[in-house]
Amino acid sequence: xxxxxxxxxxxxxxxxxxxxxxxxxxxxxxxxxxxxxxxxxxxxxxxxxxxxxxxxxxxxxxxxxxxxxxxxxxxxxxxxxxxxxxxxxxxxxxxxxxxxxxxxxxxxxxxxxxxxxxxxxxxxxxxxxxxxxxxxxxxxxxxxxxxxxxxxxxx
Length: 155
What we know:
- Keywords: Membrane, Transmembrane, Transmembrane helix.
- The protein is mainly alpha-helical.
- It folds into 2 domains: about 1-85; about 90-155.
- The protein is about 85% helix and about 0% strand.
- It contains 3 helices and no strands.
- The chain has helices spanning about 1-85, 95-120, 125-145.
- It is rod-shaped, with a radius of gyration of 42 Å.
- The termini are far apart.
- The relative contact order is 0.04.
């Protein structure tokens, strides 16, 4: 009988240890699965953040390319304007005099219009008009006279 009781105790103990081992294995598997899911979530968040940064970098690069194209277009326009003026040859003296006075007269007229707009504009409602007129007068002045210094000849 002692053998049967020992045998039953061994079987019960082994079964109990088997169940405890199985439970521990399942709990460990659940903890491992949670850690794997947390790792995947962190990886997905990292990937999403990296994609967001790539999109921002691409947008910044496109903005820089656009700015470069606008700047080179402005320089091309200035070069074409200068080349067109250089291509105009000498003519009658009065034609040369009228042509030489066109820019200064237009500039004085534009600044006169800007002054009139400034004096007539009401401070609150028409600030945009004053800003636009000032911008136009300044841009025209610098466009027309900004690069008109005599050229030095390189020998």
